[in-house]
Design goal:
The complex is a heterodimer. Chain A is an alpha+beta fold. Chain A has helices at about 25-35, 35-45, 55-75, 80-95, 110-125, 190-195, 200-215, 245-270, 285-290, 295-305, and strands spanning about 20-25, 45-50, 95, 100, 130-135, 135, 140, 145-155, 160-175, 175-185, 220-230, 235-240, 305-310. The longest helix of chain A has 24 residues, at about 245-270. Chain B contains 3 helices and no strands. By secondary structure, chain B is mainly alpha-helical. The chains are: A alpha+beta, B mainly alpha. The interface between A and B is large, with 55 and 39 residues.
């Protein structure tokens, strides 16, 4: 297979195969950062051969919290039984069965031990969470909520719709107000400045809109459990990131600009490089291929140093 | 195979425990029994409690809830801790 042969992806248009119609916050974010980066990571499906430790840690932390609340609210287990199940799952998920050894992490603050420690301390702390999980019609517990939301009043040149997608952790109620809940981990101290980085924020705006439209419930924003993880301890904070209707309207308005750009790029198969963002967030993972001096070297780097996967943004209900 | 990162030892617990955290973390998780998992949880809780005691924070801090904060600003001191 050639380095730039597309791989079938059900998130993409059948009429314009380079155009992604089902868009999640990750895809949108990648495109907003840099069209070339988006092309590599989402359209072509490349990712570094070794997944980022921070990403792995974050995914496993999310899964642990989601599964814990499903054990508690759906299966009606008590705290210890639910916690024990979650610890078992995490220990299995971080075991390399092929090599017969634990997950190897080069980051001192984020490894198998700090992950399990963080999960146990976090779930112990919030076992009697003041946030009440919303129960949706049909007695569905509002945990792990996939959504698909068509973009109104906007069609592609081929007459197709864009669909915004995602999966919320939990919909909760606190002091008679409703929030989407989320968990974020960091190595840095958590304070007001840390919370302020989520306003504006692509994912949180999208999820606030989705909660309102899909679940028919007004939400004030995202209730974020910020977790500081360092080598010797994990510390927990809770803060609210609000969104007003005006802010969300503005986000949707601006979205149309990016959708128009996305369609232009896909139609013309042109993915301009935004070289102002190559150094942000610890450096772009595609710096190597972008810096390659020839097309042959670029293709060789992509084939050797990256693996391909299909980024299906639809988050189909499980 | 040993872990490639330090796992704090808990001397007080090790005297009464069947396995250390280090041993438990080095084992294939398919072999875990319910007591093994409880042992992991207990020893990790013990680390938290010893840390809380050493920093004078007490073992468990009660969750309290305050009113929502100004728009777009999180205030971790007002919620949850």
């Amino acid at each position: 297979m050639d380095a730039f042969d597309p791989i079938p992806n059900p998130s993409f248009s059948t009429k314009n195969p380079m155009l992604q119609l089902y868009l999640d916050s990750t895809s949108l974010n990648e495109f907003k950062i840099c069209p070339r980066r988006y092309f590599y990571s989402i359209v072509m499906g490349y990712q570094p051969a070794e997944q980022s430790v921070h990403l792995t840690f974050g995914i496993l932390m999310h899964q642990a919290v989601e599964h814990y609340w499903l054990f508690r609210l759906k299966d009606h287990l008590d705290h210890l039984d639910a916690l024990r199940n979650v610890v078992r799952e995490v220990m299995k998920a971080t075991w390399d069965y092929e090599k017969g050894r634990p997950w190897q992490s080069e980051v001192k603050t984020k490894n198998r031990f700090t992950l399990v420690r963080t999960i146990v301390w976090y779930l112990d702390k919030y076992q009697n969470d003041p946030i009440q999980t919303v129960v949706l019609p049909g007695e569905k517990v509002a945990v792990e909520l996939p959504f698909q939301l068509p973009v109104e009043n906007w069609q592609t040149e081929q007459g197709e719709e864009f669909i915004l997608c995602g999966k919320m952790d939990r919909l909760g109620e606190l002091n008679k107000n409703r929030y989407v809940t989320d968990v974020k981990t960091t190595q840095r101290p958590i304070n007001s400045a840390w919370y302020s980085k989520f306003s504006p924020d692509n994912q949180f705006s999208l999820y606030s809109i989705a909660a309102k439209v899909i679940f028919g419930t007004e939400v004030l924003g995202i209730l974020v459990d910020g977790i500081q993880v360092v080598q010797t301890f994990s510390e927990f904070h809770r803060g609210i990131v609000e969104r007003t209707p005006e802010q969300l309207e503005r986000w949707l308005h601006d979205l149309r600009f990016f959708l128009a750009q996305l369609e232009w790029c896909a139609t013309n198969n042109e993915w301009p490089l935004n070289d102002s963002n190559c150094n942000l967030w610890g450096g772009c993972p595609f710096r190597g291929p972008c810096a390659a001096q020839t097309k042959n070297i670029r293709e060789m780097l992509l084939k050797n140093d990256y693996k391909r996967r299909v980024w299906d943004a639809r988050f189909l209900p499980m | 195979m040993p872990n490639d990162y330090p796992i704090p030892q808990t001397p007080a617990l090790q005297r009464v425990s069947r396995h250390s955290l280090q041993e438990l973390f080095s084992r294939d998780p398919e072999t875990y029994t319910k007591p093994d998992l409880d042992e992991i949880i207990l020893q990790i809780r013990d680390l938290r409690d010893r840390l809380a005691t050493s920093t004078g924070e007490g073992k468990v801090r009660q969750v309290r809830v305050a009113a929502p904060m100004p728009q777009g600003v999180g205030n971790p001191d007002a919620l949850g801790l």
